[in-house]
Design goal:
about 300 residues; 12 helices
C-alpha cells in the first residue's frame, strides 16, 4: 500500500494548525475536503498480457538486416530422426521433465545442424579446421598454470601416500594374523604332546609316537631352512668376484675338525699309529731316544 506525500504533508500541516480543534470541527473540515484520507490507496488492476504477433513482426522487420548466410550462419531444422528408434523427436515424443531425453534431443539437433552447415561452408570455401601454425594466447598465465600443476601434483602425492599407508596397514594386519595362527598351532601341538606324555606316565598308552613326530618336524624345518639357504646363495656381483679373485672367505680355523672329518676314519692306519709299520732308517729308528717328559715319567716310576 502506498501513501501520498502531498496528502501526508497537507494532513500534517492541517494537524499542526488545527491541533487544538475539537472532534466536531475536524469532522466539519473533513466534510469540506480540507482533510483527505492518505493511508489507503486503491491500486489499478494490472494490464492483461497479450501476444501481439503483428507488432512483433513489425519490430522484427524494422531492425532485421539483409545479410548473407556466411555472416549470419543460422541453420533452421525441422524434425530430427533418432537413428536408434528411427522416430522423429518432436515435442510429443520428448518428455520435457526427463533430463536425459531432453539433452539427447538437443544433442541430435545440434549434430544435424553441423552436418548441414559444413557442406555449405565448404562450398563457400570457408575453412572449418584450425591451421597447423595457429597460435592462440592462453586464457590463464603460466604462473597460474604452474600453481594448478603443483596443486594437482600435491594431491596425487597425497593419494599415493595414503595408498602406501593402506597397503602397510594391510600387510601388518596380515602378518599379525599369520603370527597368531602360528602361535595357536604351536600351543595346540604343545598341548597335544603334554596330553600324550601324561597318558604315557599314567600307563594309559605305551606309544612314544609324539617324540618321533617332534623329531621329524624339527628335521623338516631344518631341511627347509637349508634348502632356502641353498636356493638363496650369493648375488651376481659376489659370484663374479669369486670367479675373478678366488673364493676368499674365512682363513682362521680352516684346519679344524668338523663333524664329517671326525666321523671319517678311512685314512686311519693302525700299524702307523702304533709304530708297527716300516720306518725310515730301519732299526735305528726303533731305538730312538724318548723325549724329556717321557724320561721324567720313567724316573718317577723307578723311584
Amino acid at each position: 500500500m502506498a501513501r501520498r506525500g502531498s496528502d501526508s504533508d497537507s494532513s500534517s500541516d492541517s494537524g499542526s494548525e488545527d491541533s487544538s480543534l475539537s472532534d466536531s470541527e475536524l469532522q466539519e473540515a473533513f466534510s469540506k475536503g480540507a482533510l483527505k484520507p492518505g493511508l489507503n490507496v486503491v491500486l489499478e488492476e494490472r494490464p492483461k498480457r497479450r501476444n501481439d504477433v503483428n507488432g512483433l513482426k513489425h519490430c522484427l522487420s524494422e531492425f532485421k538486416q539483409q545479410l548473407a548466410w556466411v555472416e549470419r550462419l543460422d541453420v533452421t531444422l525441422g524434425q530430427v530422426v533418432d537413428p536408434i528408434s528411427q522416430s522423429a523427436s518432436n515435442e510429443d515424443a520428448v518428455d520435457p521433465e526427463n533430463d536425459f531425453q531432453r539433452e539427447m534431443s538437443f544433442y541430435r539437433q545440434a549434430q544435424a545442424a553441423v552436418l548441414e552447415a559444413l557442406p555449405r561452408l565448404h562450398k563457400l570455401q570457408v575453412r572449418t579446421r584450425r591451421p597447423d601454425d595457429y597460435f592462440a594466447e592462453m586464457a590463464k598465465s603460466d604462473q597460474q598454470m604452474q600453481k594448478i600443476r603443483q596443486k594437482l601434483k600435491s594431491k596425487q602425492e597425497a593419494m599415493e601416500k595414503s595408498e602406501r599407508a593402506k597397503q602397510l596397514r594391510a600387510m601388518r594386519k596380515y602378518g599379525k594374523k599369520v603370527q597368531n595362527e602360528i602361535l595357536q598351532r604351536r600351543q595346540k601341538e604343545k598341548k597335544n604332546m603334554l596330553n600324550a606324555v601324561k597318558k604315557y606316565q599314567k600307563g594309559l598308552s605305551d606309544k612314544l609316537d609324539f617324540l618321533e613326530e617332534e623329531q621329524t618336524s624339527s628335521q623338516g624345518n631344518k631341511k627347509g631352512s637349508a634348502n632356502q639357504r641353498m636356493k638363496k646363495g650369493p648375488n651376481a656381483k659376489r659370484r663374479y668376484k669369486n670367479q675373478k679373485f678366488g673364493f676368499g672367505g674365512k682363513k682362521k680355523g680352516s684346519k679344524w675338525n668338523t663333524k664329517e672329518s671326525f666321523n671319517d676314519v678311512s685314512s686311519f692306519r693302525s700299524k702307523v699309529a702304533h709304530n708297527k709299520g716300516p720306518r725310515k732308517g730301519g732299526k735305528k729308528a726303533l731305538n730312538k731316544r724318548p723325549g724329556k717328559r717321557a724320561r721324567q715319567k720313567m724316573k718317577s716310576r723307578a723311584r
